[in-house]
From TrEMBL, chain A:
This is Amino acid/amide ABC transporter ATP-binding protein 2, HAAT family. The keyword Transport applies. Residues 6-236 form the ABC transporter domain. Keywords: Amino-acid transport, ATP-binding, Nucleotide-binding, Transport. GO terms for molecular function: ATP binding; ATP hydrolysis activity; branched-chain amino acid transmembrane transporter activity. Transmembrane segments: none annotated. PROSITE patterns: ABC_TRANSPORTER_1, ABC_TRANSPORTER_2. It comes from the Archaea. InterPro entries: AAA+_ATPase (IPR003593), ABC_transporter-like_ATP-bd (IPR003439), ABC_transporter-like_CS (IPR017871), BCAA_Transport_ATP-bd_LivF (IPR052156), P-loop_NTPase (IPR027417).
UniProtKB/TrEMBL annotation, chain B:
Its main location: membrane. GO terms for biological process: D-alanine transmembrane transport; L-alanine transport; L-isoleucine import across plasma membrane. It holds the Pfam family BPD_transp_2. It is a multi-pass membrane protein. Keywords: Amino-acid transport, Cell inner membrane, Cell membrane, Membrane, Transmembrane, Transmembrane helix, Transport. One of its GO terms (molecular function) is L-valine transmembrane transporter activity. This is Amino acid/amide ABC transporter membrane protein 1, HAAT family.
Length: 240, 318
């Protein structure tokens, strides 16, 4: 059995006939934050979609605590302890905040009110606006709701796609703090992030993706300090 | 004044039928993302389903595909409540269940396996509509029928009090529509299934990654849409006649209600149905415009409202 909580081995994947991932290998250990960085089109989001069953791997395997999950329906993965926060359209805009959280917990068999109550305590802004439609929230508040919706199931693993995308710099810091808070509560996090320096700064390890495969990997600190990574992937026009 | 009140009552009855048809059409659009042209003929299927059930359970079975169906009268079949026999009330429920089954089977074996885009599904639904109608015509012939219920006339005290003609079946149509609409509202707002339906209509991909089994939700939506369409079909049959083309002939007006209310919005469909139905029936109140132009007036009103609110009255409100 794999010692990793999540592992992708020799994965090829893509959309229709178009291959995006090419012999991808990565893993996530318990209570880690792992950040995927890379240029636009490198396949970062495709990794999350393949891991979460939104795309089926063409070849290779994806395992959760040693159990094959490649191509498993997302609704089943949620029940197996994997959560996913998409980059965009990650809240139900026409539903209230409370209803959004309840939809995040449809697969729970018990304790839904308790866990939602704890989320309200942790994120008071949601409590204050619990009856408001989600579409009325600001960008940062939406991101908090999107996290919280995924956390209602108390997942072991959370996949987060570009949590800072489209947010004002002043809010990005809050978002990353929330990611750390979720991790400190025991959730392993695999995160795709365009703000590479900030993403790596809160992560334990990182992978640099380029053309669908892992170009560099290592401790987040060492990637930040690696002159080649810094020059090629952290200092280019794609990054601020 | 009395004439206007009379037209308002007529408008409410016609609106009830349109609302029930429009809700199902809008539900399908909001979740399955296509304009289902078979929805009118689903109303027809429900109306004929109720006709068969009411006949069989009332001891006066109809002929289907040239064969006279067995008579299986239920106890108290002849008990009359508001002009309608108990057998017809049961028949309405059977018709709703039948149309729901037809809708689910169609989704499961035609639309779902196609896995096609909106336009392809729309074209397919036209074929499905023709299929439904052909089966009804083969089974019952192309002639018109009624539920064979004796009309007991106007409600006297309303006639005396307000001077307007309201029949018991008008009351039944309005009352049962109100029950069904309130029931749907309760389902959508206060039950887990209803929240799942609204969530899936809002963002099906997010619903799926949230753990909602969207396939089951879509089936539930077809059941509800089919059942409400059947109720609308039965009420149309009660108000007019039961004919193989009845649903198809009213489909354009139902579409107008859905578009006016805001495509994909269930509450918009209710409101759109009310506006279109009232406009349709209030046409004689407009000076120099005769009743023959009622459909034209309803559509002109729809165009005018859409010019002001291009996404419909409640566009983007699920």
């Amino acid at each position: 059995m794999s010692r990793h909580v999540l592992e992708a081995s020799n994965v090829d994947s893509g959309y229709g006939e178009v291959q995006v991932l090419d012999d991808l290998n990565l893993h996530l250990d318990d209570e880690e934050i792992v950040c995927l960085i890379g240029p636009n089109g490198a396949g970062k989001s495709t990794v999350l979609k393949t891991v979460f069953g939104l795309l089926s791997p063409w070849t290779g395997s994806v395992t959760l605590r040693g159990e094959e999950i490649g191509g498993v329906d997302p609704a089943d993965l949620v029940r197996m302890g994997v959560g996913y926060v998409p980059q965009v359209d990650n809240v139900f805009g026409s539903l209230s905040i409370d209803e959004n959280l309840r939809m995040g917990g449809v697969a729970r068999e018990s304790g839904l009110d308790d866990v939602i109550g704890r989320l309200y305590e942790r994120f008071p802004i949601l409590d204050e606006k619990r009856g408001a439609k989600a579409r009325t929230l600001s960008g940062g508040q939406r991101q908090v709701l999107a996290f919280s919706r995924a956390l209602v199931m108390e997942p072991d693993v959370l996949l987060i796609d570009e949590p800072s995308a489209g947010l004002a710099p002043s809010i990005v810091e809050d978002v990353f703090r929330n990611v750390q808070t979720v991790n400190e509560l025991g959730t392993s996090i695999l995160m795709v992030e365009q703000n590479a320096r900030e993403g790596l700064a809160i992560s334990d390890r990182g992978y640099v993706l380029d053309q669908g495969t892992v170009a560099y990997e290592g401790r987040a600190r060492s990637l930040l300090d690696n002159p080649e990574v810094s020059q090629l992937y952290l200092g280019g026009a794609d990054y601020e | 004044m009395v004439q206007l009140a009379q037209l308002l009552v007529n408008g409410l009855v016609f609106s009830s039928i349109i609302i029930l048809g429009a809700i199902g059409l809008s539900l399908v659009y909001s979740i399955a993302d296509f304009a289902n042209f078979a929805h009118g003929d689903l109303m027809t299927a429900g109306a004929f389903g109720a006709l068969v059930a009411a006949g069989v359970l009332g001891g006066d079975p109809p002929t289907l595909f040239g064969v006279t169906l067995p008579s299986l009268p239920i106890p108290g079949a002849d008990i009359v409540l508001f002009e309608l026999p108990l057998a017809l009330y049961v028949g309405i429920l059977v018709g709703m269940a039948f149309a729901a089954l037809v809708a689910v089977v169609t989704q499961r074996f035609i639309y779902e396996p196609l896995d096609a885009g909106s336009i392809e599904l729309l074209i397919t639904s036209i074929g499905v509509a023709l299929g439904y109608r052909a089966i009804v015509q083969l089974g019952f012939g192309s002639g018109q029928r009624t539920y064979e219920i004796e009309r007991t006339g106007r409600i006297e005290w309303l006639q005396d009090l307000l001077g307007i003609a309201v029949t018991p079946r008008d009351v039944i149509i309005l009352g049962l529509t109100a029950v069904l609409v309130i029931g749907l509202h309760t389902l959508l707002q206060y039950t887990t299934l209803g929240r799942k339906m609204r969530a899936t209509a809002d963002n099906a991909d997010l619903a799926r990654v949230s753990g909602i089994r969207t396939g089951e939700v879509i089936l539930a939506m077809w059941v509800i849409g089919g059942a409400l369409a059947a109720a609308g079909g039965v009420f149309l049959g009660l108000d007019t006649l039961v004919r193989p083309r009845m649903g198809f002939d009213i489909l354009l007006v139902v579409f107008a209600a859905v578009i006016l209310g805001g495509i994909g919005s269930v509450y918009g469909a209710m409101l759109g149905g009310l506006v279109i139905g009232m406009a349709h029936e209030l046409t004689p109140a407009i000076p120099f415009v005769s009743v023959e132009y009622s459909s034209a007036v309803a559509f002109i009103l729809m165009v005018v409202i859409l010019l002001v609110r291009p996404k419909g009255i409640m566009g983007e409100v699920t």
